[in-house]
C-alpha cells in the first residue's frame, strides 16, 4: 500500500534533514498529523520565518537578523582580536563562556581534500579582505576544531596571514584531539582561549 500523497510528501521533506532515515521520517510524519492544528501552523511558520528573516553577516559570516550582526555592530567589543571558527554554533559556544569580548569570523566549513573542499569553498577570502581593510585587527585566534581537517585549515590560514604581520594564535590543547568546539564545556573553552599559543 502506498501512503496518500500528503503523507508521502511530508516523509520526503523530513528525509531531507540530516541524520533522518526512512523510518524516523515516517514516524515524524505521522506524529505531525496527530499534532494540534495550531501547533502545526506555528511549526510551519517558524520554519518559514527562520529562513526568511535570517541571513549571514556580510562581515563575519555569523547568522543574523540584521546585517551587520550584533557582535560586529557592537563597537564596545575589542576590535583588535578575531576568533576564526568553523561554524556558527562555535560562536554561540564561545559567547556562552562570557569571557571573550573580541570579534569572530565564521569559515562555514574546513579544508577537506577527501570531500573536495578547497580554500575557495570556505570563508577564507573574506577573512583576508577583512584583515587588509581593517588595521585595528592585531590578532587572529584560530579556533577550528582539534581534528586533522581543523588543524590543516588553521595551518593554511596562519601561513596566509603571516606576511601581514598580524599575530596568529591557536587554541591551547585543553581540547581533546578530535573534539569539537561546540561540545566543549565553558571552563575547557576558557582555558583553551586563555592559554592559546602563537603559531
Ligand atoms: Zn558579524
TrEMBL record:
GO terms for biological process: DNA recombination; DNA repair. NCBIfam families: recR (TIGR00615). The gene is recR. HAMAP family: RecR. This is Recombination protein RecR. Pfam families: RecR_C, RecR_HhH, RecR_ZnF, Toprim_4. A zinc finger (C4-type) spans 57-72. May play a role in DNA repair. It seems to be involved in an RecBC-independent recombinational process of DNA repair. It may act with RecF and RecO. Belongs to the RecR family. One of its GO terms (molecular function) is zinc ion binding. Residues 80-176 form the Toprim domain. Keywords: DNA damage, DNA recombination, DNA repair, Metal-binding, Zinc, Zinc-finger. InterPro entries: DNA_Rcmb_RecR, Rcmb_RecR, Rcmb_RecR_Znf, TOPRIM_dom, TOPRIM_RecR.
